[in-house]
């Protein structure tokens, strides 16, 4: 390590009894370099935290939460799908009776087909005048929205295949719905004897599967009662039960 030239000069003077000058001491500010810039208000330069500093995270959190909530509410409000316009009503005190009847009929026909008598009963329940009801129902028949003949035909086809009903039972149901006798006869004329026999057999087989543990006499009596309640005549019941119970005894 090389010797400090200033220290060597001081030692040379001291060895020759020359006065040795004291080293010049620089002020503290000069030794530390240029002075620091003046602190700027609102900034922390490493000293103790100022009491006027920005709010802490705890204090700012509610504000941020409110801001997010406000933004979310705004987005929901702006992005909310507009609801459907309220359904137009025609049953006010000053409403046109035919407009009221037309609105009621169209709502009734939305879910399923109806007979004219069913729609007339619905209009009567809403106190629609008879002349207005007849005018609207006549118009609905003209455009094909009300068709008792087609209703009877579809009813017979559906009830026989899905509910295994007899012709007499379907006649009673259609009569209760106000279908004309001629329309009923026309629809039932399409049902063959074999169709009715097949419906009775399907019903008996379904019921018999739940009666395997019963005695033969009890099983016969219950199956006969089930067929009778569906309107099947006695000769159909006897033939079907003989076939179904014979099949079950063999199995």
Characteristics of this structure?
single chain; 251 residues; mainly alpha; Arc Repressor Mutant, subunit A; 12 helices; elongated
Would you mind describing this structure in some detail?
By secondary structure, the protein is an all-alpha fold. Among the domains are: 97-146, Arc Repressor Mutant, subunit A (Orthogonal Bundle), CATH 1.10.10; 147-191; 192-251, Arc Repressor Mutant, subunit A, CATH 1.10.10. It has helices at 5-15, 28-31, 57-79, 97-111, 116-125, 130-142, 148-163, 167-176, 181-188, 193-208, 216-229, 234-250. The longest helix has 23 residues, at 57-79.
Query: Mind telling me which CATH architecture of one domain this is?
Result: Orthogonal Bundle
Q: Indicate the percent of residues in helices.
A: 55-70%
Radius of gyration from the alpha-carbon trace, in angstroms: 51 Å
- What CATH calls the topology of one domain is Arc Repressor Mutant, subunit A
Structural class computed from helices and strand pairing: mainly alpha
Shape: elongated
Uncertain regions: pLDDT < 50 for 5+ in a row? 42-63, 69-88
Distance from N terminus to C terminus (CA atoms, Å) equals 118 Å
Beta content: under 5%
Give a summary of the structure in a few sentences:
The protein has helices spanning 5-15, 28-31, 57-79, 97-111, 116-125, 130-142, 148-163, 167-176, 181-188, 193-208, 216-229, 234-250.
């Amino acid at each position: 390590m090389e010797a400090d030239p200033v220290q060597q000069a001081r030692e040379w003077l001291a060895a020759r009894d020359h006065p040795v000058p004291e080293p010049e001491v620089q002020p503290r500010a000069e030794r530390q370099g240029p002075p620091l810039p003046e602190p700027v208000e609102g900034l922390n330069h490493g000293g103790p935290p100022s009491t006027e500093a920005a709010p802490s995270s705890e204090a700012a959190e509610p504000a941020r939460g409110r801001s997010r909530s406000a933004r979310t509410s705004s987005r929901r409000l702006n992005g909310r799908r507009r609801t459907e316009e309220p359904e137009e009503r025609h049953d006010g005190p000053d409403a046109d009776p035919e407009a009221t009847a037309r609105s009621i009929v169209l709502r009734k026909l939305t879910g399923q087909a109806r007979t004219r008598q069913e729609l007339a009963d619905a209009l009567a329940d809403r106190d629609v005048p008879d002349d207005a009801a007849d005018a609207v129902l006549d118009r609905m028949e003209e455009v094909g929205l009300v068709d008792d003949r087609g209703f009877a035909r579809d009813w017979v086809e559906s009830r026989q295949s899905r509910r295994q009903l007899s012709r007499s039972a379907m006649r009673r149901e259609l009569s209760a719905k106000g279908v004309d006798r001629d329309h009923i006869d026309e629809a039932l004329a399409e049902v063959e004897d074999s169709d009715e026999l097949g419906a009775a057999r399907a019903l008996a087989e379904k019921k018999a599967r739940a009666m395997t543990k019963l005695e033969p006499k009890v099983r016969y009596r219950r199956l006969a009662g089930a067929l009778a309640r569906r309107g099947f005549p006695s000769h159909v019941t006897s033939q079907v039960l003989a076939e179904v119970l014979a099949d079950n005894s063999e199995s």
